[in-house]
Amino acid sequence: MRKYVIVLVLLVLMSSLIFPAFDFSKIKDKISEFTLPNGLKFILLEDHSIPIASFITYVNVGGSDERIGIWGISHFLEHMAFKGTSEVGTNDIKAEKNILDQMDAIFEQILYEKNSLNPDQEKIKKLDEKLTALGKEAAKFVVDNDLETLYKKNGGEGMDAGTGYDQTMYMIGLPSNRVELWAYMESSRFKDPVFREFYKERDVIKEERRLVRENSPLGKLLDELLAIAFRDHPYHVSAIGPMSNIENITRPDMYDYFRANYTAKNMVVGVAGDVYPDQLKKLADKYFSQLPPGRKNPRLFTQEPEQLGEKTVTLYEDSQPMLFMGYHCPSIAHEDFTTFGILDMILTSGRSSRLNKRMVIHDKSAMTVFSFAGLPGNKYPSLYVILALPNSGHTTEELLKTIDSEIEKIKNESITEEELESAKTRVKVAGIRRLNSKFGLILKLLESEMKLGSWTKAFDEFQVIEKITTTDIRELVKKYFITSSRSIARIEKKEKKEEVGK
Predict the structure, then answer these.
(1) Chain centroid, CA 449 distance in Å
(2) β-strand 486-493 against 311-317: which pairing, if any?
(3) Which of 172, 232, 268, 380 has the greatest number of C-beta atoms within 10 Å?
(4) Residues near 436 by Cβ (< 8 Å), separated by ≥ 6?
(5) In this predicted model, what pLDDT tens digit does every residue of 87-122 receive, in sequence order?
(6) 0.85 exceeded by the pTM?
(7) Is residue 59 helix, strand or coil?
């Protein structure tokens, strides 16, 4: 107990030292914004200490914006956005486009035959061969990795992208004297993309799906958890998409999806570093003003209905047993969302957290346990999840009972002031560390802009944290941790299934 008190005192002292030094008003003074007539907003975080700049294009589209037949298209499109334009990535765009159009026509024939009542396998085989041959012809006009090469020749680093359920992001770092190069390149691939090597890249994505889902016990379990936890909302489908969708998405499908979602009002651009507002505004007007306005997602939104009973699914795998528990929780815009971050610290984060101390340290029933709110996304109401891995000689059922008992303790006895203050301090310190990174800060600003309505709300959670009480934690657990609204997904050893069968 004495050791715990000493640690708490140190955390409180750390908090008191850090927070006066971290002046949010000074950060806001370095941030400026402007919006082009087409609706595209730019957020600039100035830092002239070194001559570099980081750029993030945040597109408000992801797996939750997809529909039956094109699930996985957001992730697929992210890959294709690196393939270049009519000027970048090709040595003869006219000849290349002619072959790409022929390939699209052949693929439409393949899909038509595959989906007919009596598919002609020989015909499909010949069409596949023709598609492959045309692909080899098209490859003669492709300049491999041209976009990335051009950036690297100009000092570019960290070129990357990522797709989630709520957004797609594109990142790059450059010397600050190459800002105009970025403006030209980034605007070009969103005004004039050429989705070349489409069928070749599809094979890459299929292999990625096999790796992260079909050949991964954790990936399969996650898919099953989402499938039972969400009935109507698009969060119930993997963001990488089902294999059958990946195989049937066409290049025209991708252009339609691109034109509907990669529009000015559905994007926001973040810049951090050695860039001046007037400079960025001038380049934005020159290069980005031609993007179509469009409108911000979601255009349609289906609300997940209240879950009426506990749902469970069990996979039998030759792998480490696992336990996933998912409770429905609100979106990031809800006032309760920040409180879940405090609960994380109390339940699973750090050696002194309740579940870690009991299951990992004392009982040694679990190898690890962790939790977080916002699976698989947080733009819409989603899941608060707890994941635990049982140690040898222990079972997922045992872990489930232990977790339930600790949750009931909070409902009936609440938590101590010491636990709360420790959790608050650790959440604030972790948040400040993220904001001390230029990339982390600009990403936070962009997320707040799209999900909360304004980048200025990026710092509000620190004020919310200060007001959270032990009663708030207790009421949160009572409100959301209801057996009828939870979903449980497990992995059990294959041999256990065989014993049950006997």
Answers:
(1) 16
(2) parallel
(3) 268
(4) none
(5) 999 999 999 999 999 999 999 999 999 999 999 999
(6) yes
(7) strand
